[in-house]
Design a protein that fits this description.
Blueprint lengths: L1 H14 L4 H17 L16 E5 L4 H7 E3 L9 H4 L5 E4 L11 E4 L6 E11 L6 E9 L5 E3 L2 E5 L16 E10 L2 E11 L6 E6 L8 H4 L3 E8 L4 E6 L2 E7 L4 E2 L7 E3 L14 E3 L16 E3 L16 E3 L11 H4 L6 E3 L16 E3 L11 E3 L11 E3 L15 E8 L6 E9 L2 H10 L1 H25 L2 H21 L3 H16 L12 H10 L4 H15 L7 H13 L7 H9 L16
Antiparallel strand pairs: 1-25, 2-5, 3-4, 4-25, 5-24, 6-12, 6-25, 7-9, 8-9, 8-24, 9-10, 10-11, 11-15, 12-13, 13-14, 16-23, 17-22, 18-21, 19-20
Helix pairs in contact: 1-2, 1-9, 2-8, 10-12, 11-12
The chain binds 2-acetamido-2-deoxy-beta-D-glucopyranose.
The site of 2-acetamido-2-deoxy-beta-D-glucopyranose has 5 residues, from loops.
């Protein structure tokens, strides 16, 4: 319907005929859009968490933020003074894209700087018999080439007591969130596990998500990252509330939480007499007497005969008798002058010149080095493996869920793109609380963004209906370049038309019109009526249309009249083949205003 309207208006604007018929079409289009997208006011109120939370931060209240959040002043260990400082800037700002009224987020303002900010949980999260849920929003407002946006859930410890010193060595319990560099796209879920034997902490990395998710780094929209961890060691990772990874802490991490119960004994050595050879040379075998190891692989062909007329005494090359020593030849400097060699003309008629040699052939007596055949080794003991012993470092932790308690959270990042917006962080032990929080924040944001992008089209339609002359502007702004494109891209059709017409004439025996006729629409009319199935008939209007685009035939009143007449007969949903090929050239843009006369069957 929209295409029909645009098409009709495009056509009529060009011909400057009355608009009355199409006004009704426009109205229909607008009413339809209105029906689909009812006007709805999306009202945002800073959310209040509905249940048990350990931290819930919407960043809308800058005063509260300043009290709660601490920017790191730490220096990065073991690094050049220049870049080692955590000097990245953070700010509380509304989103760059039209956000919700009153909504703000935490924005990383610096690129290529170490940046860290953190906050204390309202009370520590202790892993016991309730799930652990963390959820937060990230919007890469300027895209992302290389850098992270992950969250660190800081372990309750002495090192994390002073958040001004938050740095990359500060112990964390969980690291969760997006990270990307070049084509390496990750969604981290790492936890630090305590070895129950000796208390050493080690990182356990979650298996990769099912899908490689790239949109969050490109589309500049907010995305919601959620991690659910349960006392039964199961976990689920959600992106935008869809599951993208799930599994179990005991099974889906590398290195595994629990070491193997048995290992190969490192002290076990292969015995000297261990025979690992599966096959050996047969000690009984002897070289046959007639085996000549020295027979050469190639011998001269004794049956060959020197061809008649071979000139043994003539060399193949001779010094050029016509060559002369150059005048500036300096024998002292350049050495004795010699004429360049040329092919000996005496050899031209002969089968060959110079000493004749027999051609070489394969020697049937050649056998090479004799080797005894292989037999099964009677002493073969199989591949040696060290014996397996119980792993001295073995332990079995069946509750890796019981991680180090979490006392704070923060971002410790380095990013090549700035303006990363973080929002609506929540830590809770109840999935329903996180869901409700998302419904009041993230979901509203997405609806607002979707509405705004639809709204642009709608506002344009409304405005244009009040100012119909704008359609003419669209025709020129959108239609003209498309027409030009078609003219330039498909401009070589005369040759194709010629070929098709020739081919068609052969098939149908139709009368072939003079090529020049195609330029003149009037002349084509009788032809159109008399030989409707001719291919040239289809090509004809295309050429005429192209010419019209150049302004040559706009005043051809009668031709326009024909076009219009046939408009009404046409079913626009099924354009004739040629018209489709024109539309193809213009992609999804409105169809070419040049109406193509359809083939009459
Ligand atoms: C603790 O044990 C692991 C092996 O289970 C070992 O790799 C690590 O070095 C040990 N740490 C200490 C401090 O002994």
């Amino acid at each position: 319907m929209v295409r029909l309207t645009i098409f009709a208006i495009l056509l009529l604007s060009l011909v400057s005929v009355c608009l009355s018929e199409d006004d009704s079409d426009e109205a229909v289009v607008t009413e339809e859009i209105d029906d689909v997208v009812p006007d709805e006011e999306i009202v945002y109120v800073s959310p209040t968490p509905s249940g048990n939370t350990y931290l819930a931060e919407h960043f809308d209240d800058e005063g509260r933020f300043k009290q709660k959040w601490i920017v790191s002043e730490a220096k990065k260990d073991d690094m050049d003074e220049e870049i080692s400082k955590y000097e990245g800037m953070w700010a509380i700002e509304p989103p760059q894209q039209d956000g919700l009224k009153g909504d703000q987020g935490l924005v990383l303002k610096s690129k290529a700087k170490h940046s860290a900010i953190s906050a204390r949980l309202d009370r520590p999260f202790v892993f016991a018999d309730k799930p652990f849920i963390v959820q937060y929003e990230v919007a890469f407002q300027e895209g992302q080439d290389c850098g992270g946006a992950y969250l660190k859930l800081l372990s309750q410890s002495k090192q994390s007591s002073d958040l001004r010193k938050f740095n990359d060595k500060t112990p964390y319990t969980i690291m969760f969130g997006p990270d990307k560099c070049g084509t390496d796209v990750k969604l981290h879920f790492i936890f630090r596990h305590k070895n129950p034997n000796n208390g050493t902490m080690s990182e356990k990395h979650c298996k990769k998500p099912k899908d490689r998710v790239e949109e969050p780094y490109k589309d500049k929209r907010p995305h919601l990252y959620t991690l659910h961890l349960r006392p039964d060691n199961s976990f689920t990772v959600f992106l935008d509330q869809k599951i993208i990874n799930e599994g179990n802490l005991l099974e889906d991490f590398t290195p595994p939480v629990n070491p193997p119960a048995e290992i190969e004994d490192p002290s076990d050595k292969k015995p000297e007499d261990w025979d690992e050879r599966e096959k050996i040379a047969d000690p009984e075998a002897k070289k046959p007497d007639d085996w000549d190891e020295d027979a050469p692989p190639m011998i001269p062909d004794e049956s060959a005969v020197k061809p008649d007329g071979w000139l043994e005494d003539e060399p193949e090359m001779i010094p050029d008798p016509n060559a002369e020593k150059p005048d500036d030849w300096d024998t002292d400097m350049d050495g004795e002058w010699e004429a360049p060699l040329i092919s000996n003309p005496a050899c031209e008629g002969a089968p060959g010149c110079g000493p004749w040699k027999r051609p070489m052939i394969n020697n049937p007596a050649h056998k090479g080095k004799w080797r005894p055949p292989l037999i099964d080794n009677p002493n073969y003991k199989g591949k040696w493996k060290p014996r397996r012993i119980p792993n001295p470092d073995f332990y079995e932790d069946l509750q890796p869920f019981k991680m180090t308690p979490i006392s704070g959270l923060g971002f410790e990042l380095w990013s090549m793109s700035n303006m990363i917006l973080f929002d609506n962080i929540i830590v809770t032990d109840d999935p329903a609380v996180a869901d409700k929080w998302a419904a009041e924040t993230f979901s509203l944001k997405i609806r607002k963004l979707d509405k705004d992008s639809e709204g642009v089209v709608m506002r344009l339609v409304h405005y244009t209906n009040e100012h119909p002359w704008l359609w003419a502007v669209y025709v020129i702004v959108i239609g003209l370049p498309i027409v030009m494109l078609i003219v330039f891209c498909c401009g070589s059709t005369p040759e194709k038309a010629e070929m098709k017409r020739a081919a068609d004439a052969k098939k149908t025996d139709a009368i072939t019109p003079d090529y020049e006729d195609e330029d003149v629409v009037d002349d084509s009319r009788p032809l159109h009526k008399t030989s409707p199935a001719s291919k040239s008939d289809l090509e004809l209007p295309h050429n005429a249309a192209s010419n019209k685009a150049d302004g040559e035939h706009v005043s051809d009143g009668e031709a326009e009249h024909i076009d219009e007449e046939e408009d009404e007969d046409d079913d626009d949903d099924e354009p004739p083949p040629l018209q489709e090929s024109i539309a193809e050239g213009a992609g999804d843009a409105p169809r070419s205003p040049k109406k193509v006369r359809p083939r009459k069957e």
